């Protein structure tokens, strides 16, 4: 963790506003400003690319699949991702490692990072098991689509789940279903309560192949 934090230091200048709590409203406003101003957006994107070089040690396309706890960030909905970053940085979403890294970042670094990841592409994957894929597609069309929409690309409140790797989806759905304190959400707990391990495997198989 110390090594990772030392990598953050070079771009976190003395004038960083990271010591002041960064509000959700401030982050969303800055994100919208960057999205509406190409020059600012490009500047923050370049800053975010530097930040993401550290993130890639765990969140890279190959690395993420090695660790069930680590999701893909490529293509993630920026409004959702920037809010998750804020929650981690302020200890509202619990992960000591993530909190330690993100609390050193300022507002523009956070916004720049999500702008960078928004443009990154997820690897295209073919279903390893056609039967599980078909079952997962049918399940998604009956249940998951009601909140996550047909494309699974997320919004400010919901993450992009399309293309997320199998291991992370499988682990996360089981945590919701089994009442883990690591991930807690009443809606997801209700939806996953009746899911079998096979249902979860099917949905995870389908999501991994969604564009």
Structural key phrases:
globular, iron ion binding, mainly alpha, Cytochrome Bc1 Complex, Chain D, domain 2, heme binding, Cyt_c-like_dom_sf, 2 domains, 211 residues, Cytochrome c domain-containing protein
Describe what you observe in this structure.
GO terms for molecular function: electron transfer activity; heme binding; iron ion binding. It is found in: Periplasm. It comes from Comamonas kerstersii. With about 210 residues, this protein is an all-alpha fold. The protein has two domains: about 25-120, Cytochrome c-like domain (Cytochrome Bc1 Complex, Chain D, domain 2, Orthogonal Bundle), CATH 1.10.760; about 130-210, Orthogonal Bundle (Cytochrome Bc1 Complex, Chain D, domain 2). It is about 60% helix and about 0% strand. The chain is built from ten helices and no strands. Helix 2 crosses helix 3 (about 40-60). Residues about 1-20 have low confidence and may be disordered.
């Amino acid at each position: 963790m110390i090594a990772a934090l030392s990598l953050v230091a070079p771009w976190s200048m003395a004038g960083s506003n990271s010591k002041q709590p960064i509000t959700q409203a401030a982050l969303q406003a800055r994100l919208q400003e960057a999205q509406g101003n190409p020059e600012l957006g490009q500047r923050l994107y370049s800053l975010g690319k530097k930040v993401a070089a550290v993130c890639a040690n765990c969140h890279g396309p190959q690395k993420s699949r090695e660790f069930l706890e680590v999701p893909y960030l490529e293509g993630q909905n920026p409004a959702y991702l920037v809010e998750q970053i804020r929650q981690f940085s302020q200890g509202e979403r619990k992960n000591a490692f993530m909190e330690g890294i993100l609390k050193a970042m300022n507002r523009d670094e956070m916004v720049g990072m999500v702008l960078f990841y928004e443009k990154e592409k997820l690897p295209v994957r073919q279903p390893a098991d056609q039967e599980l894929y078909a079952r997962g597609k049918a399940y998604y069309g009956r249940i998951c689509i009601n909140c996550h929409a047909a494309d699974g690309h997320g919004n400010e409140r919901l993450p992009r789940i399309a293309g997320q790797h199998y291991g992370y989806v499988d682990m996360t759905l089981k945590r919701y279903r089994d009442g883990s304190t690591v991930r807690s959400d009443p809606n997801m707990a209700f939806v996953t309560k009746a899911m079998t391990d096979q249902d979860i495997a099917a949905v995870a198989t389908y999501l991994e192949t969604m564009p």
